[in-house]
Amino acid sequence: FFRWKMRVVLAAARTSAQRLGTRRAFGGLASQQNIDGLSNDLLISLSMNHNNDGRTQAELVANLARNNLLKSDFLIETMTSVDRLHFLLPDQEGMYEDKPRNIGSNATITSPHMHAIALQALFGDGDIPMGSLALDIGCGSGYLTVCMASILAERDGVAYGIDHARDLVQSSRRNAERSHPYLVKADALHFFQGDGFLGLEEKAPFRYIHVGAAVEDIPTALIDQLAPDGRLLIPVGPEGSDQDLLCIKKDTQGNTTKEKIMSVVFSRMHIEPPDTEEAKRIQLEEKVKQLYNEAESLTKEIRNWQAKFKEEHSSRP
Ligand code: SAH
Q1: SS3 per residue for 272-288
Q2: Which residue has its alpha carbon closest to ligand 1 atom 2?
Q3: pLDDT tens readout for residues 260-302
Q4: Atom nearest to 172 CA in ligand 1
Q5: ∠60-65-71 over CA atoms, to 5°?
Q6: CA of 3 to the centre of ligand 1 (A)
């Protein structure tokens, strides 16, 4: 019966994948950018009556806990207090559905079950030393950075969020101000524009590093920036197919071990920053400069022609 039910679930998933217009039936379902982080195995478990959707943040988190995605009480409290409402674009439908949502600049806020799995993998053992630092790479909406800061602030720790897209760094800041102004005032979280491949060397070492976009190879800078006893959660694998969500742990001697948490499909970490508003402004400024130079050289040409005309005809043109 179980196998039969699994087949039915897979067939239904395939049909919805085709309806979504994906390139490859089942694998393609997960490769849709707007459902990043949803792995095949998780898709199956979610399909089997494990619906995490809620009508409120508290209901959503209670469902994540009921379905064993959030196991520690303090993480349940954290996610309940960080309301998705503050991290989505205005007027979004289904705010508390367990789905990614567009946040602009070609990015999505990750689905709540992936936030839960990330928090559980990083902080679940409850071993959080005083003054710990965390880095959230590809912070996007800022949701996970705020969760990290609210866990660490109680222990005098700080969370840093970085994103390639300047617009998203600004939205992260604005969202954090709306959701947890006291954390911002207490300097328990900061956002910077930065390249995830390089990490944030000036604030390293970090006890916790979370990477919200997939890489083909683990950047060595991130291993270097991991503190002794630190952990790095990172999706590793090619774009558009299953990647491994790896938890890399560094021991006190600096040796690392890898553990696969699950299969996931995240959008990839970009080499170049996206075409943000800032990039558009710079492009427009360049164009204005170029037109100004052209206008200047045309003016010179006209003056020269006028001077020549005056010389030849002894009168003004
Ligand atoms: N975890 C976030 C969003 C994840 S989407 C949330 O839940 O809100 C992936 C993010 O990675 C996007 O915001 C994208 O801008 C960012 N990103 C992509 N390439 C990057 C890079 N090289 N450096 C930093 N951030 C990057």
Answers
A1: CCCCCHHHHHHHHHHHH
A2: 140
A3: 999 999 999 998 776 666 666 666 777 787 788 888 888 898 9
A4: 8
A5: 145
A6: 37
